[in-house]
Fold these 2 entries.
Entry 1:
Amino acid sequence: MDQLFKFVNNLNAAQRAVIIGGFSILFVLLVGLLIYSNIKAEDKKFNYTIASNLTKNQVMLASSELEGSGVPFTVIGSGNDLTLKTSKEFINIAKIKLVTSEASTSKHVGWEIFEKSSLGSTNFENKVKYLRALEGELSRSLESLSGILRASVKIAIPKQTIFTERKTEPTASAVLTLKPGVYLTQKQIDGIRNFIASAVSDLNSENIKLIDQDGTLLEHSKDEMDNVKSMTQNKYKTKLETGYEKKIVSLLEPIVGPNRVVARVTVNLDFIKKHIQQEIYDPEGTIRSQESTEKTASSQGTNGGGAVAGVDSNIEQPQDGAANQGTKSNNESTKTLTNYEISKKVIDQKDNNYSTVKKISAAVTFDSTVLNDVENKEEFIASIEAVVQDSIGYDPKRGDQVSVRSFKFVGLKALGEASGQTVDENGNIVGNTDTLTMVKSVLKEFSEYIQYLIAAILLFIFYRKFIVNHEVVILGDKSAAKKAEDGSNDGLIDDMLHGFEDEFDMQSAKGRLKAKVKSQIMNNLSGLDEEGAAKYEILIEELDKEINTNPGEMARMIELLLSEGDAKFTSKKKEGR
């Protein structure tokens, strides 16, 4: 193990990079091989669905078909919600076999029942077939809905009778098997009931009952319906009030400044539907016809009394002069019949609106600092009130009310102090909006590449911190040793020219220098035996500790040793001459 650490410590940066890269490639290849093996193993498992939502009878038919074709499969689920699964290799074959088998056919009988008819069929049989076909078609249609797994519709049509009092209306019922986690809303329930009622003659939606697979009646109670209706009305009222408030604020903010106006609107609504019918008769009728009848009658009598009955009494005697004249009378009568036309006006009013606005009340407050530069404050407030009235459709006949007041908003600076500047929600000055928008747009545009840039920076820091600072020379590397003896400072110059003028570069340069000096010293161990080399290494470690502990004293000692060595070298050189 010591030799391994020693070997690793003697590697330079390039050699370490090659080794690390090789191990990385090997690791990637191993991971890829494991993933590929896992994918192949998953393909052999029964993870591919052939069919789902099957009943027990359908599974039995499909099982016999798949077993006869040699397709391996498994059954998952319980009850009438079963699923057939197989491996990827057999999924296509299994689906083809299942489509052609009896398991895929629908259990509901439709209009195809009339494709085969016999001459001896009676009227009763045809009625039964019609009823079965109608029920089957309705069941198929309901099963095509997204939330319904299976459906069974039953219709009861009463016998026709000539007696009106004995006539009864048809009824219907349906059993709906819902998919897991699916719940039908009241709108969906009403839609299903109306769909069934439209397919059967004289069938009212009130005579249709729906239950689910658990036997629960699919119909909300009256209280639940009232709660839903109340919630819907409240949502509509809130939405209408919010719309009025946004309209008021959007109109006043350019006048008083952003975030310096608050509006609250209350709307009273009437959700009662109105249907009014009126018949108005005109008291002054128009003459349609008029009939007038006049009668005139005259009569004349004699002075004598009554004569004896007989021929002589019936013979008119001659009259002589005035003495012989009798009495004379005239009768006149007029009868007028006038027929008048009755004038009638029928007014039918039906309100189809969802609601009717009864009253609107609006309260608006704005920051009082806005009035500092206004000469006529009352006129300014009156103008704002007029704008608010126009925005909500003010109608005094409904009793609408509008209130506008000015108050000092806490936490907001005066409007003059923030003029020409961008303010936040508290009215405080913030930076330029254009600059912030530009920075956000740039970050959003290059967001996909920022992660790669951060990864590259981290890799560069890792390289500079852990690889370059620990560069060493392998034992026996003469060129590296010679380069270290010559005191080459190329690495130091490169560090200084790289652009990092902070402490990180200084530490990097020191690390490179220490590594080169250490490698130069370690190269001198090549001529020693193992015991001598070990002693030499221990000496170097102790010197390293002392240098870090007492750098001043060690510097003076090294300076003294160098001066003595220089003196000896000079004396030997003179003796040689």
Entry 2:
Amino acid sequence: MKLSVAFILISFLSGSATFAQTAMVDSAQKVNNVTVLKDPRLDELARKMSEYNELMNLRKARTGKGYRLMVLTTSDRAQAMSVRTSLIQQFPDHKVYMIFQSPFIKLKFGNFVEKKDAEDVRKQLIKSGIITGNIYILPETIEVKPEAALSEEE
């Protein structure tokens, strides 16, 4: 008796298990058409984001080979700050780089693509009297202005 009840129960469950595995027909399969509703503001946002990214890439400082002037090497921080301030006031178009390499503070000046430009500014610095020692022209990796980089690429 127990064996026959178990057999009937197994038959019933296996039949329902096979029925559970039949595929249900999806509503999208019946129609074969999918409609996507998109907010039109997404297109506007994507366009604005693209314009913003292009503008930021154009403004980004680029690097290249060029020259800088080594204007001062000292261990006196006050003197280095004084010379740095004078350079910034007299030459606001050029950047001053203050580098500490123990025990010295080095001041480098400018981003020059051409050696001739560096030499011209070197002569101006000597005439101005801000720097009393020697000024050396160093080949270095410099920051190229985005406008200059764009004109070189075209």
